[in-house]
Design a protein that fits this description.
- The protein is mainly beta and about 400 residues long.
- The protein has a single domain, classed as Methylamine Dehydrogenase, Chain H (7 Propeller).
- The protein is about 10% helix and about 45% strand.
- The strands form 8 sheets. Strands 3-30-29-28 form a 4-stranded antiparallel sheet, with no helix packed on it. A 4-stranded antiparallel sheet has the order 4-5-6-7. The chain has a 4-stranded antiparallel sheet with strand order 8-9-10-11, with no helix packed on it.
- The two termini are about 20 Å apart.
């Protein structure tokens, strides 16, 4: 991503209104809008997304939640906070970043210390040199592009996956964008659409997850109303993989190596790949799963939603021997993303700015400086950098290497 870190390209992206880039004036307006949203959210106001987030269903309990969740003691589950004095002056570790977009963001991936890429509705952002810049934008009256996930083998070789959907008919087509810093054109042109084999049945398919063990070992998951779809890239081409049958889409992909990969689906299934074949894993809960992450093959965390009206969400945890439910207070909201630094330092995100932290024993709520919905979380384990993204271009971060 060296090209995106060059101020010449940052300025070009800022001024290029033909591809939906922000002008200097609109950047200021966007910053003011974010500030107004945050202030109103603190007053208890709620906002509905103006663009498509993704296809993950939301429980009825998600529709009317207010207030921040603050860690106010040592008693486990923490209730919604209405008096910030209970925080005992604890330093707030998360801060709101200056985002160059007001488009909804869905996922974030870190290439290294002080470097990250976020994707979402018609936009790709790049973080470097201690600031966020617009790396790619899209604008069309007839349709939009929504990118659900992002992953790379390095900052110079990145895949972003999602869908292109027509506004009037709702017809959609899957999309994979690939960033190659070796291209000879400017940074926008370096994000190129990946051409997939004509033999694939891609009707109404959306791609919702991506992960790889190397540049020539990349998996892209998704699906449609007809069931799951999983593609594999071997460095030369894309092939569809044999995957356990089921409804829904593959929302989560994660692994430790080419022969140790897990996939999680919206139908509540987790499957494991041993380098030869995929097989189902029996879980204690069959509720939809929106993301999966591990601190190793013997420490896995799967998050999603429950079909009940409980204020607690089951976070399914594998300890190397068996799966179990570990409950966390979310006030009824679904949990959309999970990522961690280690088995005793794991984070999950939810609606209305809720951030949950697992310390190896229990999930607790962390204080967050926003009331916006969060949909993606990621970071860099070696440096400890953390990023969370979501509604209206919201970006939260804890940068160890920055200010």
């Amino acid at each position: 991503m060296r090209r995106l870190m060059d101020s010449r390209y940052s300025q070009k992206w800022t001024a290029d209104t033909r591809v939906g880039g922000l002008t200097v004036a609109s950047r200021a307006a966007a910053s003011l809008a974010v500030a107004v949203f945050v202030a109103l959210a603190a007053a208890g106001c709620s906002f509905s997304p103006s663009q498509d987030y993704d296809d993950r269903s939301v429980t009825t309990a998600d529709s009317d939640r207010h207030g921040f969740l603050v860690d106010c003691g040592d008693n486990g589950i923490v209730e919604p906070n209405t008096d910030e004095t209970c925080n005992h002056g604890k330093h707030m570790p998360w801060r709101i970043a200056d985002s160059p977009t007001t488009n909804n963001l869905a996922a974030v991936w870190s290439a290294g210390a002080g470097e990250a890429i976020a994707v979402g509705h018609d936009v790709i952002l790049y973080y470097g040199n201690e600031r966020w810049n617009t790396a790619w934008t899209y604008s069309a009256r007839s349709h939009y592009i929504h990118l659900h996930d992002v992953w790379g083998s390095s900052s110079n070789n990145v895949f972003a996956v999602g869908k292109r959907q027509y506004r009037r008919s709702g017809t959609r087509f899957p999309l994979i964008l690939h960033y190659d810093s070796q291209c000879s054109s400017d940074s926008r042109e370096c994000w190129r659409k990946v051409e997939l084999p004509d033999s694939l049945d891609l009707e109404r398919v959306s791609f919702t997850s991506v992960w790889g063990s190397a540049a020539d070992d990349v998996y892209v998951g998704g699906g449609s109303g007809r069931g799951h779809m999983l593609l594999h890239y071997d460095g030369t081409g894309w092939q569809e993989q044999t995957f356990p049958r089921g409804n829904g889409v593959i929302w989560g992909l994660w692994g430790t190596a080419a022969d140790d990969i897990v996939a999680a689906t919206s139908s509540g299934m987790v499957a494991h790949y041993n380098g030869t074949e995929w097989s189902r894993i029996k879980l204690p809960d069959s509720a939809p799963i929106f993301d999966i992450w591990g601190a190793g093959s013997d420490r896995l965390f799967a998050v999603g939603t429950t079909l009940s009206s409980s204020n607690e969400q089951p976070m399914q945890h594998y300890d190397g021997t068996s799966w179990e439910r570990v409950y966390a207070f979310t006030n009824g909201s679904s949990v959309y993303g999970v990522w961690g630094v280690g088995p005793d330092n794991v984070f999950a995100i939810s609606r209305r700015g809720r951030i949950l932290h697992y310390d190896g024993n229990q999930w607790r709520n962390e204080e967050a400086p926003t009331d916006m919905d969060l949909r993606g979380i990621g970071g860099h384990a070696a440096s400890g950098d953390l990023f969370a993204v979501g509604q209206d271009g919201t970006i939260l971060q804890r940068i160890v290497t920055g200010p």
